[in-house]
Amino acid sequence: xxxxxxxxxxxxxxxxxxxxxxxxxxxxxxxxxxxxxxxxxxxxxxxxxxxxxxxxxxxxxxxxxxxxxxxxxxxxxxxxxxxxxxxxxxxxxxxxxxxxxxxxxxxxxxxxxxxxxxxxxxxxxxxxxxxxxxxxxxxxxxxxxxxxxxxxxxxxxxxxxxxxxxxxxxxxxxxxxxxxxxxxxxxxxxxxxxxxxxxxxxxxxxxxxxxxxxxxxxxxxxxxxxxxxxxxxxxxxxxxxxxxxxxxxxxxxxxxxxxxxxxxxxxxxxxxxxxxxxxxxxxxxxxxxxxxxxxxxxxxxxxxxxxxxxxxxxxxxxxxxxxxxxxxxxxxxxxxxxxxxxxxxxxxxxxxxxxxxxxxxxxxxxxxxxxxxxxxxxxxxxxxxxxxxxxxxxxxxxxxxxxxxxxxxxxxxxxxxxxxxxxxxxxxxxxxxxxxxxxxxxxxxxxx
Amino acid sequence: xxxxxxxxxxxxxxxxxxxxxxxxxxxxxxxxxxxxxxxxxxxxxxxxxxxxxxxxxxxxxxxxxxxxxxxxxxxxxxxxxxxxxxxxxxxxxxxxxxxxxxxxxxxxxxxxxxxxxxxxxxxxxxxxxxxxxxxxxxxxxxxxxxxxxxxxxxxxxxxxxxxxxxxxxxxxxxxxxxxxxxxxxxxxxxxxxxxxxxxxxxxxxxxxxxxxxxxxxxxxxxxxxxxxxxxxxxxxxxxxxxxxxxxxxxxxxxxxxxxxxxxxxxxxxxxxxxxxxxxxxxxxxxxxxxxxxxxxxxxxxxxx
Amino acid sequence: xxxxxxxxxxxxxxxxxxxxxxxxxxxxxxxxxxxxxxxxxxxxxxxxxxxxxxxxxxxxxxxxxxxxxxxxxxxxxxxxxxxxxxxxxxxxxxxxxxxxxxxxxxxxxxxxxxxxxxxxxxxxxxxxxxxxxxxxxxxxxxxxxxxxxxxxxxxxxxxxxxxxxxxxxxxxxxxxxxxxxxxxxxxxxxxxxxxxxxxxxxxxxxxxxxxxxxxxxxxxxxxxxxxxxxxxxxxxxxxxxxxxxxxxxxxxxxxxxxxxxxxxxxxxxxxxxxxxxxxxxxxxxxxxxxxxxxxx
Lengths: 448, 304, 296
Prior knowledge:
Chain A is an alpha/beta fold.
């Protein structure tokens, strides 16, 4: 902990000096103030009653309703909810604001994979002083683990993405293909399907860092280890190799639709039966409903195919936390914590679940009403049962790199080559490993 | 030297004689067909935009790109939805863009006119340096300067305000170049001398005598600055975080990207319709002011 | 480009012109010069996530010289420059000459319609072409299906640069055409008359009179196109999500600098890339200008 603190302080100092060099502006020395402060529940309640302004950066659509209800409950608080971009765009803006030391929001939405990077940069507030550890039982273990970096909580989990296999039932029925329960069966299904209809593919993939790491995670791979500033990256472990073997076959036999996820063609493919399955997080239903409306009734949800028959391993894909930023605009962390707790642990959770979000709280995940929800889009299927089960079966012990945001950004430069040229996926991942390690070393980590 | 100066009036005369001379010539079918191919290339994507802004989000994906869909003709619905989606934020972006254009492009035109005139009609200390510095600085990629600029503006408290977009758009090196060449040709030195003899101040002389002569050049520079500001993307992207201050370009791309998240909604039909609505005012401005900017460009580019 | 000194009396050689040039230069200094100076300063330091900020002299420049990613991106825009810019300027010139020849039917229509794409913001143009380029369900896909052909994916790795070149050409042919056309319009009629008295043909008139007369416009259009090519950014960055494996994070120098500073937080090295690209662009623009003027 103290080691990490030191490292963090150095990083903050570095960022500060960068910002200050611009104009030689005034120095504020208390850069680490957020971590040592103790804020009791009473302080938080008092802050909520007293009121004030809060600036929140988030792109999660259901937070809008949460803010409305929050302000109704605490009329003295005025929340400015800003959509500063989705994912990477927002991190860029956030990093810029931190570098400049100005215009930092009080609360920010940060995906789990990006959290260690911001925690290490000392941009986020250590929540142990707020008594966050006492909330452990409220959250599913996967997301709870994800908001921690070096045993310190740097945010409260907002949503989670336990993985499931979404499949187009029409397509499977039409060609009499069995829904795969293992990845070997998946491979067979891919071949059968593409043979039956050359325009149809088992899934689309043009190389996606988040998907790849989640798949390796599910296969039990642990390519990253982080111990302070000592980092290892290694894609030759058994779990990673399991994934490489299956996926290389899919690539080599041209069984993957060359369509990037989240493109307009992707949504088209879901609706015109050319993409038969999507393995992704439990947050996907809302996207199906809003972006692929005409396929309503065709799709269903199944457990993730397994690497070893008979197991029930799962992994997280996506999901994000709300974190308190150091040096936030309004400098009112008790109030900020009050909001985060309301949104992620209090009344806000149900509001967001009603809006279509997938929770990270055990209360909702075990709520019979939640589990019994029938999804019209999935032909009345009670999909939450599958998601909740997946949430419990997430393989433990996974960590992301403290520079995962950068590392993911170069995935397509390196591993992506395997999807469009003769490079093998194994070589691609090796190149990804090398480039990531190179960056880590440049940034002062010791990467092996 | 004085004989080489071409006033816009002289230009017009020349054009008239050219036209008279050319009328006699036969039209060429081959040449017309070749140029028509070029026009087709220019217009097909715009036609694509028009056809597709008449489709619903669903039809967009299922119908042929270069024709209307068999389904519902949704142009009016799309336009209405574009203006009302997200509490009518499109209109707000439209207003922001107008603000940036009026203040940014207007200021850019004024500054370029003043400076171009100063460079053309005065001999002063450091004039050569001005030209060298301006041309040299233009060569440095703006994108790469984005972070330093951002950090500076942030220290000045300008980020996330309209000023962060407006101040950088006040500088148009190409506008300066155009005004410079235009002013050296359009304003006879004798007229300035005469005004000075009468005891008029420099600025009075500029606004009373020179501005009317510079009018076509000013319209041209204004139009180019308007296009540059209207199309500005990267600068507002990094300077602004609050969607309430976005210009249309950043807003449209945000709509395009919003489907890429959990719970996000794909609104490609609105992106396409919004794109169409974004370019219409510019097209209108160009068509309406055609006469001015063409003569302005003519004088600007004749450099002998 | 070199503006001839107007006939202003010597005695007025003073500071008076600064009244007019001053405001422009002041803001210019703020938005151009200050960031450049700051970038030079940044390029001499290195800042690490772990370890902080330290003065490293010319280390960043040395690293750049050996950085294969940078040179790959530079090579790419260099190819773009020698292929796309001549094609675009040639097309623009041909259309300008065609319209100027007076032998076109409906010349006003052509002039306006070819110019129209310039009014389309680069973002909108790229989004639009991105939809069109879709080889599964976009216009390219439509054509493949309707005519039962198989056009290659325009956004595959070996075609992506050409597809971007097409977008840029589409955007700027009209603009350059207009600059050339305007220059052609003001060629004194007397030049043509003497030429036709000499019995010169159309082709001869073009090479002997028209092209030399618009050399100034050609030079300026070339210089701005060179600067534009080296700064290529918006088009690739918007197409990137559609073709992540073809458009790498170091596809162009500008994209590389953007990636370095925004994803990698390597502000110092990004500043170095910016400075070096600026220097290279300046040298090339200067050479073009010198050549253009010498041949005059």
